[in-house]
Design a protein that fits this description.
It holds the Pfam family MarR_2. One of its GO terms (molecular function) is DNA-binding transcription factor activity. Residues 1-150 form the HTH marR-type domain. InterPro entries: HTH_MarR-typ, MarR/SlyA-like, WH-like_DNA-bd_sf, WH_DNA-bd_sf. This protein has a three-stranded antiparallel β-sheet. It has helices at residues 3-7, 15-39, 45-57, 64-70, 78-87, 109-132, 135-149, 152-155; strands at 62-63, 91-96, 99-107. The protein contains eight helices and three strands, in the order H-H-H-E-H-H-E-E-H-H-H. 66% of the residues lie in helices and 11% in strands. By secondary structure, the protein is mainly α. It has a domain at 43-123: Arc Repressor Mutant, subunit A (Orthogonal Bundle), CATH 1.10.10.
């Protein structure tokens, strides 16, 4: 559905203003639908992100500062998220022997199982996106979003 119809606004100052509003609206749309999926598993998007980061490094432990760097939501408190996941039995944490300030985290078997259960939900959500966008369009949109944020390779 067109943005103008969704938010009941006929005109924008210029295409860039519409782009910003469209990005915010679309991001909120993705978050709303993701929250709905994750709620069934009693996880927040930020907790899901931590589990996926840890699964990607499994079986190696990951320091909390690395989790923080890799989080999609840079405002998230990784230590608090890890503690909530630990209480659910989805991750384990340990102090690093030679640096007591460093805390390493690993995903547990239960955490991996939780992500496997959720794969079907994530796949369904992605299939819903692919019903509206072709693979070529998704690639183009990804490229344009990367370009909008500034391409690090071209800057450096």
């Amino acid at each position: 559905m067109k943005l103008e119809k969704e938010i009941h606004q006929a005109k924008f100052k210029d295409p860039f203003q519409k782009l910003v509003v469209n990005l915010i609206y679309s991001g909120n749309w993705v978050n709303f639908n993701t929250n709905k999926l994750l709620k069934e598993h009693k996880l927040t998007p930020q907790q899901f992100n931590v589990l996926r980061i840890l699964r990607g490094q499994h079986p190696k432990p990951v320091p909390i500062f690395t989790i923080t760097e890799r989080m999609l939501d840079k405002m998230s408190n990784a230590s608090r998220l890890v503690e909530k996941l630990r209480q659910k039995g989805l991750v384990a944490r340990s102090e690093c022997g030679n640096d007591r300030r460093r805390v390493d985290v690993v995903i547990t078997g239960e955490g991996i199982q939780k992500l496997e259960e959720m794969n079907k939900l994530v796949t369904t959500f992605n299939q819903n996106l692919s019903a509206n966008l072709s693979e070529k369009e998704a690639i183009t949109l990804n490229d344009l979003l990367d370009k909008m944020r500034g391409d690090d390779e071209e800057e450096g």
